[in-house]
């Protein structure tokens, strides 16, 4: 599926080929599931659902934010600080 296209990094010799293929299969299943959800509920509703499920609520609270702050698309000082911390891990 994806492994023949994307390949396997030479430095991944410590990881078994089977585990890499298993990860690729799970990735493809998740990708198909995501596509299906987008088709079923529309892109904007789907993205809203995903954002709500994935936002670290404890971190939002720590920075004085809530879901409504995120969806209002207003950039505040609290939002900037929240994003600085979260983009450090990307």
UniProtKB/TrEMBL annotation:
InterPro entries: Isoprenoid_synthase_dom_sf. SUPFAM superfamilies: Terpenoid synthases. It comes from the Eukaryota. PANTHER family: BIFUNCTIONAL LYCOPENE CYCLASE/PHYTOENE SYNTHASE. This is Uncharacterized protein.
């Amino acid at each position: 599926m994806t492994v023949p296209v994307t390949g396997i990094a030479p430095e991944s010799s410590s990881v078994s080929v089977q585990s890499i293929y298993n990860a690729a299969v799970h990735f493809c299943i998740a990708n198909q599931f995501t596509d299906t959800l987008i088709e079923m509920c529309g892109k904007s509703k789907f993205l809203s659902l995903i954002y709500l499920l994935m936002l670290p609520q404890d971190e939002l609270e720590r920075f004085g934010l809530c879901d409504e702050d995120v969806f209002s698309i207003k950039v505040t000082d609290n939002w900037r600080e929240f994003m600085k911390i979260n983009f450090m891990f990307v």
